[in-house]
Amino acid sequence: MTNKPRHESPNFHFLATVDPLLVELGARAEHYALDDPNTSILKIRQLGELLAQSAAAKFGIQTDSRNQEQRGLIDDLYRRQFLPPDIKDLFHSVRMEGNQAVHQLHGDQGRAITLLRFVRKIAVWYYRTRHNGIVFQLFFHSISSACTLKVYLAFGYASFVYGVFPFSTAHQSKSKEKDVLRNRILYQIHQ
């Protein structure tokens, strides 16, 4: 894999300095969330696993991804007081939903979006443990042009109408693009 992720992500771009694969998994999860939610949930699960393994490595916990189960790793991180309770719960939610997606072909758009929010919270927590004092803003739901207003409203338009990118000079250039999109959505909603 190259040093730069192949896909861009408004929610996971900040992880590029940690591991481009984290960004790649996040971008793919975002990409598939509406068109193929099952695949999105699988990518979210993979991202959660890689974040847990990276956290374990950061805290000096030896892992062998082939032998260490995700549940055991999360519980071990929590027992050693490296994970706050809310992050542990998010990790477990991602893990369990990922299992359902794999074994039962389970997953819908709403759940994929919710799990994207969960894994982003985990990613922000992880990044903050590596880089003290970094401030992030709201989750930004990247909108596929194929979506209808009905789908937007089903996910709660406020989460993306008022959502913004995390602070980053690389994404400030997208501000006009976001404003245009926000205005278009608000116009459609008020029609």
Estimated radius of gyration: 17 Å
Q: Class of the domain at 13-140, according to the CATH hierarchy? A: Mainly Alpha
Average pLDDT level:
75
What is the strand tally? 0
**Percent of residues in β-strands:** under 5%
- Structural class assignment: mainly alpha
User: Can you write the helix and strand succession as a string?
Assistant: HHHHHHHHH
Q: Write the CATH architecture name of the domain at 13-140.
A: Up-down Bundle
Span between termini = 46 Å
Low-confidence stretches: 143-173, 186-191
Determine the fraction of residues in helical runs and give it as a percent range.
Answer: 55-70%
Per DSSP, the total helix count is 9
**CATH level-3 fold name of the domain at 13-140:** Four Helix Bundle (Hemerythrin (Met), subunit A)
Largest sheet: none
Shape: globular
Task: Explain the layout of strands and helices.
Layout: H1 20-32, H2 37-58, H3 70-79, H4 85-104, H5 109-130, H6 149-154, H7 158-161, H8 169-172, H9 175-189
